[in-house]
Write a structure and sequence with these properties.
about 550 residues, alpha+beta, FAD/NAD(P)-binding domain, Alpha-Beta Plaits, 3 domains, binds flavin-adenine dinucleotide
Length: about 550
C-alpha cells in the first residue's frame, strides 16, 4: 500500500507499508514511553468521553441537536436522579455495564441471568470452564474499542483497575504506529486507547465488580419467561410492572430492561400481554467468522502490521491482542462464498493464514482452543418499541444487542451498547419514571438521535463490504454510486500518508467520531481527496482470488 522503511521483526523481508498499529506488549499500568500529557489524557479521572454525556441527553430531550463531542458537564445528581427498582434481564457484558451505571445512580438494580454459572476469579478458569450457553460468541475473538474504554475510564474507573489486575491490555492504535506516519504524539492521542482481553475474561471482571457493588443484586440460573402488567399508564397501551420467571415467581419493577442479547424473546413476551408488535428489521449479516486463540511462551503478542481488521480482497483478517499473552486470529468471509467454507478445518485455516504476508506471523504461538471456532448466521437486527410514534408498551425498554446488533468484525457491539446504557441512565435521571409514557418516548428519542446513527453507519459499511466481496468473486471492480463509500475508502488510504487522516480514520474505527464529522473537519476532505483518491490502484498485500482458492483447496 505505502512506501516506507519500517521492518517487520517477524518477517524482515517485508519492508514496509507495514504499520505496527497495535502493539500490545505492555499491560495496563506498566511504565510507558508515552509523553506524560498523553498518559494524563487517558487516565480514568479525566472526563474525556466522546460524544455521549449527560448534557447530550439533556440537549436532545430539550429538542436541541446532539453535539459531536462534548465534555461531561457537572450534573446535579441530587434531585435529578429519581430512585427506581430496575430489573435488567440478561447479564451479558453490556447488561452488566448498564447495571453498574444504574446502581451508581442510586437505583436498586437486580440482574436476572438464565445461565447458572458464576464467573470464576481466575482468567484461565474463565477461558477453560465458564459455561455461558446464553452467549454464542462467548469464546470468539473480541476487542473493546476506544469508545468502550473511554466510557469505562470515565464512568466506571474501578473496572479499569480490575481489568488491569486480570491481565487485560491497553492498546493505542495511533501511538503504536511509526512516528513517520503518525507524527509527534499529540495531547489528544490518549483518546485512541482501546482495551483488549478475551471476552470471557473481560466479562468475568465486569461481573465480579458488579457482584461487589451496592444496590446491585445478580440472580444467576434465573430465566425470565414473560412480563407482568398492571394498570395502564396510557389508554390502550399495556404497562409492564415486572417479570415472570420460569419458576412461576413474579418480580415487581418500576422498569424492566430487556438485555437478553441477539436472541431476545421480547416480541413474544409483548405479544402475550397484548402489545402491538415492535418494529423489527432483520437480515442475516452475511459474514462467516473462523477464529482461533493463541498464547506465547514469553507473554509477548505478535506485532500488528497494518490495522487489526484488514480487507484482503474477498477475505478479511482480524488480529487481536488479548489478555495474559494471548491473542486471536480470525478470517472473515462472505456467507455466499461457498468455496471458502473449508476454512472451518484447522489445517485449511492455518494454510490460508500462512498465505497472508501481513498476518502469517500471528500463528507463532500455541493454540489454546480445540480447533477453529466458526460462527455464521449472525443477524443484523434493529428492534424499536416505538411504532407509529407511540410506545407499544410502557414500563419496559430494550437495550444492548437485544435492541440492535450487526456485523461483529468491526467490534462495535460493546461500545454502542455502553453508549446506549449511558443514555438509559441519563434519560431516567432527566425524566424520572413517574410518567412511564413520557419516559418511553424520551428514551426512544435519545436512543434514535444519539446511538442509532452509529448502528446505521455500521450497517451501511457492512452492506458495501458484502457487495464488494460479491464483485471480487465475480472478477469485477466494485463501483457503487455512493460518494460516501468512495470517501471512506479514500480516508482509509490517506490514513497511511498523513497524521491528521490517520487520526480521523482511527477515530471512526474506534467509534469516537462519525465519518461525516471527520470529513467535515477543516481541510480534511481536500487532504483525503489528494492523498486517497488513488486507493483503487494500491496493491492488496494478499494472494489474488485464484491463489486464495488454490490455497484453500490444498494447492
Ligand atoms: C462473533 C462475534 C464477535 C464479536 N466481537 C465483538 C468485539 O470484538 N467487540 C465488541 O464490542 N463486540 C463484539 N461483538 C458483539 C458483542 O458480543 C455484543 O455486542 C455484546 O455481547 C452485547 O452484550 P449484551 O449484554 O447486550 O448481550 P449478551 O452478551 O448477548 O448477553 C445476553 C444475556 O442474556 C441472557 N439471557 C437470554 N435470555 C434470557 C432470559 N430469558 N432470562 C434471563 N437471561 C437471559 C443470556 O444468557 C446472556 O447472558 C461480537 C459478537 C459476535 C457474534
Amino acid at each position: 500500500m505505502l512506501p516506507g522503511s519500517m521492518v517487520n521483526p517477524y518477517k524482515p523481508e517485508l519492508a514496509v507499508n507495514q504499520i505496527a498499529f497495535l502493539s500490545a506488549s505492555h499491560p495496563f499500568w506498566q511504565p510507558s514511553a508515552l509523553p506524560r500529557s498523553v498518559l494524563r489524557a487517558s487516565q480514568p479521572s479525566e472526563n474525556r468521553t466522546g460524544a455521549l454525556c449527560r448534557s447530550s441527553v439533556r440537549s436532545t430531550l430539550a429538542g436541541g441537536a446532539p453535539p459531536d463531542i462534548c465534555s461531561l458537564g457537572p450534573w446535579a445528581r441530587e434531585g435529578a436522579v429519581r430512585i427506581a427498582r430496575i430489573l435488567i434481564v440478561g447479564a451479558g457484558v453490556v447488561g452488566m455495564g448498564a447495571a453498574l451505571l444504574l446502581s451508581r445512580d442510586g437505583h436498586e438494580v437486580t440482574v436476572l441471568e438464565r445461565d447458572a454459572d458464576a464467573p470464576p476469579a481466575d482468567p484461565e478458569e474463565s477461558w477453560d470452564s465458564w459455561q455461558r450457553k446464553g452467549v454464542n460468541q462467548f469464546r470468539l475473538p473480541h476487542f473493546f474499542l476506544a469508545r468502550y474504554r473511554s466510557l469505562l475510564s470515565t464512568e466506571l474507573p474501578e473496572l479499569m483497575a480490575a481489568l488491569a489486575a486480570a491481565g487485560a491490555v491497553r492498546v493505542n492504535s495511533v501511538l503504536s504506529a511509526p512516528e513517520q506516519l503518525r507524527g509527534p504524539a499529540r495531547e489528544e492521542d490518549g483518546a485512541f486507547e482501546c482495551l483488549s482481553g478475551r471476552r470471557c475474561v473481560v466479562e468475568a471482571v465486569v461481573a465480579s465488580v458488579a457482584s461487589r457493588s451496592p444496590r446491585l443484586a445478580i440472580r444467576r440460573g434465573t430465566a425470565v419467561t414473560g412480563l407482568v402488567t398492571g394498570p395502564a399508564a396510557h389508554d390502550g397501551v399495556p404497562h409492564v410492572t415486572g417479570v415472570r420467571l420460569a419458576s412461576g415467581e413474579e418480580l415487581p419493577a418500576d422498569l424492566v430492561v430487556d438485555m437478553t442479547g441477539r436472541r431476545s424473546r421480547l416480541p413474544r413476551w409483548l405479544e402475550s400481554i397484548g402489545a402491538r408488535a415492535p418494529d423489527e428489521e432483520l437480515d442475516d449479516c452475511g459474514f462467516i467468522y473462523y477464529g482461533r486463540h493463541f498464547r506465547s511462551a514469553s507473554g509477548d503478542v505478535p506485532p500488528a502490521i497494518g490495522g487489526p481488521l484488514q480487507h484482503l480482497g474477498s477475505i478479511s483478517s482480524l488480529t487481536l491482542p488479548a489478555d495474559n499473552g494471548t491473542w486471536s486470529v480470525t478470517l472473515i468471509t462472505s456467507a455466499n462464498d461457498k468455496a471458502l467454507r473449508p476454512l472451518h478445518d484447522a489445517g485449511t485455516w492455518e494454510r490460508t493464514v500462512r498465505s497472508l504476508p501481513l498476518v502469517a506471523h500471528w500463528l507463532d504461538g500455541e493454540p489454546i482452543d480445540d480447533g477453529v471456532m466458526a460462527i455464521a448466521g449472525i443477524e443484523d437486527r434493529h428492534r424499536s418499541l416505538m411504532v407509529d410514534g407511540a410506545p407499544v408498551a410502557t414500563g419496559v425498554v430494550v437495550a444492548g444487542d437485544a435492541w440492535a446488533c450487526s456485523n461483529p468484525s468491526v467490534g462495535r457491539g460493546a461500545s454502542i451498547g455502553m453508549m446506549q446504557a449511558t443514555v438509559l441512565r441519563d434519560t431516567i435521571a432527566a425524566t424520572g419514571l413517574k410518567d412511564p409514557w413520557e419516559f418511553a418516548c424520551a428514551f426512544h428519542r435519545a436512543t434514535a438521535e444519539l446511538v442509532e446513527p452509529w448502528f446505521r453507519d455500521t450497517l451501511a459499511a457492512d452492506r458495501h463490504r458484502l457487495a464488494e466481496i460479491d464483485a471480487l468473486i465475480a472478477g469485477d471492480q466494485y463501483r457503487p454510486p455512493d460518494p460516501a463509500w468512495e470517501a471512506s475508502q479514500a480516508l482509509a488510504s490517506a490514513a497511511f500518508k498523513d497524521p491528521d487522516c490517520l487520526r480521523g480514520f482511527v477515530s471512526v474505527g474506534m467509534v469516537l467520531s462519525r465519518e461525516a464529522d471527520v470529513l467535515s473537519r477543516p481541510g480534511m476532505l481536500e487532504k483525503v481527496t489528494d492523498l486517497g483518491a488513488g486507493w483503487r490502484d494500491e496493491p492488496i498485500p494478499a494472494p489474488d482470488r485464484d491463489d486464495l482458492l488454490s490455497t484453500v483447496a490444498g494447492g
